[in-house]
Design a protein that fits this description.
Blueprint (H helix, E strand, L loop, with lengths): L3 E5 L4 H12 L6 E4 L4 H11 L6 E4 L2 E4 L1 H9 L3 H5 L2
Parallel strand pairs: 1-2
Antiparallel strand pairs: 1-3, 3-4
Length: about 80
C-alpha cells in the first residue's frame, strides 16, 4: 500500500471526508500533519502544494490535492491504482 500523508486541522469536515474515503479504499495508515498546531508545517504544506487550504493529500509524495480533487480522481477510477502501488 502506498504512503499517504494528509495535512489537516482539528476541525475540518473536508479532512474528515478525505480520511473516510481513504479508509473506504483500504488505507489503514494516514500520516496526519496538523498545521493548526505547527506554523512551520503550514509553510511546508504551502510550498509542497502551492495551496493554503486543508486537506492537502499526498500519495507516495505525489500531490493529489484536496478532498474534492481526490474524490474526482476516485470517481474517474484513478485513486485505487495510486494506493495499490
Amino acid at each position: 500500500m502506498a504512503k499517504v500523508v494528509m495535512y489537516c486541522t482539528a476541525v475540518c469536515p473536508y479532512c474528515i471526508n478525505a480520511e473516510r474515503l481513504l479508509k473506504n479504499r483500504g488505507v489503514t495508515e494516514i500520516e496526519k500533519i496538523r498545521i493548526d498546531l505547527n506554523d512551520e508545517q503550514r509553510v511546508i504544506m504551502e510550498s509542497r502544494s502551492n495551496r493554503r487550504t486543508v486537506p492537502q493529500i499526498f500519495i507516495d509524495d505525489r500531490h493529489i490535492g484536496g478532498f474534492d480533487d481526490m474524490a474526482a480522481l476516485d470517481r474517474a477510477g484513478g485513486l485505487l491504482p495510486l494506493l495499490q502501488q
